[in-house]
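Below: protein 1.
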Amino acid sequence: MILSREQTMAKSVAFQAIKPKPFSVWEVMIPVIFILSYMRARENREIFAQNLLFTKKMALEAAFDMVKKEQSREVVINRINSKTESLLSSAPEGVYSDAIRQEQLKEIDLLIDHYCRLMKAAGRDYAALVMEAYPTKAAYIALQEKLKAAEKKVTEAARQTLGTQTDSDMVARIEAATDRLRREEVETIFSSTSRQ
């Protein structure tokens, strides 16, 4: 349920953040070109969504191993450190930096705690897990704010690494879409209850 929610969120952010380019006359008149353009845009959104899920998948795997396999936090953190160090050494220069990695590790640490709470909660769907893990709307909003701050630090580290290659408009669209979707989620989850 948790992974499904994260995938849905990532796809929704990708759909809102990646603006489709207008179709040309040729794309409209020749269906094959239209289909190819559509498939390319869809593939770009899927790659984008997978990038958004990078830290979340690592944190979710770590939380699962801690809760279900009873591995220690030290073991899972060491595994994450190893994976991200390997990625750092294999990434092209100027694309991934230790500054980005360090901020991602902080985000992952926060996510591990969140996912562990959700995994220890009982519920038939994601909303029920959240409501049990976070007894009030304010508690869940506080988590969302911490996560937003951690993601912002990752983004800032990426801006410093990428310099002029940073697409500031895209970053703004990602942040706006994420904020909007999270606010909607909070309202949906807590609207059916009197918990505040």
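Below: protein 2.
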Amino acid sequence: MRTAWRRLLVPAISTVLMLAVLIGLGTWQVYRLRWKQGILDQVATAEAAPPIPLQADPAPYTKVSVTGRFRFDKVAQFGAEVRDLKAGPTMGYQQLVPLQRDGKPPVLVDRGWVPQRRTIPLDNPPGDVTVTGYVRPREVQHWFSPTDDSEVRQFYTLDPAAIGAAIGAPNLVPFTLVALGTSQPETYPAPETHLPRPPNNHLSYVITWYGLAVALAVIFGVWARKAIGT
């Protein structure tokens, strides 16, 4: 009997240590779940609230509104995204247009997704318009970022300073306004319909780590019972 218990010592210690790690990871994900849910609740509250006038230095992802005139002579393209349309998967891009304001620097507006091939004209309103959207911070180009093509005004890093210099609008504010609206069938650009929401997979991680801990305890219990019995 003593020999059997001695054989259990090292596996038991290893199992306890592994259980501590698995339970610790599961508990950490519980805290992460609560934290992420708090962020999602804040996003939902901001989305339901009316937009505020655009300030000089707005907080990222604030819902704002601004009035001005679109400079469609300086339009640019951002990114590459495939969407499923009636005709099938279609490649497209985000339309970027500076919004000229009286007495204030222009704002680079992401008006929404546009298919590369289309048979209908874009909805480009003339004159003064009021745009509602959220503030998207400036992006920084990294080693693995696709290379911008300023000659055709195709950009892959949302950097208003670099984009503005390439399209002839060097005094853009240092952030982008992503337009919010209701997508209409066969009407482009198709704006975003809600504020960005971070993914929330923490519940599945909680179940995974705690589930592994339970499975480990069961497996060790079955093994230990057989080891003692022998």
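The longest strand covers residues 88-101.
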